[in-house]
Amino acid sequence: MEAMILAAGLGTRLRPLTNDRPKALVEVGGTTLLEHNLNRLISFGFNKIVINIHHFPDMVKDFVKSRKFDSEILFSDEREQLMDTGGALKKAEPLFSGREPVLIHNVDILTTLDLGQIYRNYLETNILAMLLVSSRNTARQLLFDTDNQLAGWKNAATDETLWSEQPIAGAIPLAFSGIHIISPELFHLLPDARPYPIIPEYLKLAKQHKILAYKHLEEQWLDVGKPETLKKAEIFLKH
Hints:
Blueprint: E1 2-6, E2 27-28, E3 31-32, H1 33-43, E4 48-53, H2 57-66, E5 72-77, H3 84-92, E6 102-106, E7 109-111, H4 115-123, E8 129-134, E9 140-144, E10 150-155, E11 160-163, E12 172-182, H5 185-189, H6 199-205, E13 211-215, E14 221-223, H7 230-237
Parallel strand pairs: 1-4, 1-6, 4-5, 8-13
Antiparallel strand pairs: 2-3, 6-12, 7-14, 8-12, 9-10, 9-12, 10-11
């Protein structure tokens, strides 16, 4: 089972904590976000995990080397250029086997979801990608049709809307949870490695491929994106 932790971002929302460390090494309850997520993924059976790095990259490498994680851990080094999510996946492609689906997980997300079971559920499908989503009040929403197929994206604050094809009346808005599972086929369909976001690529690919929503409860998930959420994160982890 293969996974990727997206940890290369500058962590601007977590400043000033990220002025001297990457967001991956910001601590919740005395344990870094990276270690929380590595331990959970390993507990579910993920035995190859790729971490992309850019902001204080050597600190992340040194941290991982200082611990004994029961998994093969590889690094996709973006220190020369931050690649955004889509570019990060394409750049990391050679580090994966190319034979298994890959679970993608933002490092600043905490969840109580059984990611191992969700991964196994994905194995029983024949879809290009599964996007974890929930009904949350956020400005940016993914839009799905009644078959849970990705159909669009909307920024409610600006009213900007992107559609995979034609606008759909009654499209269902759901908030992306920063966790997705992709078929190895996706790597071959992505543009060459350069900085670009993944959602516009998903919208293009949704014209011919199944990209489905996996809905979960809001209380099973927490975005640790700002310093004020750290105390909330400590409480979250105790449940």
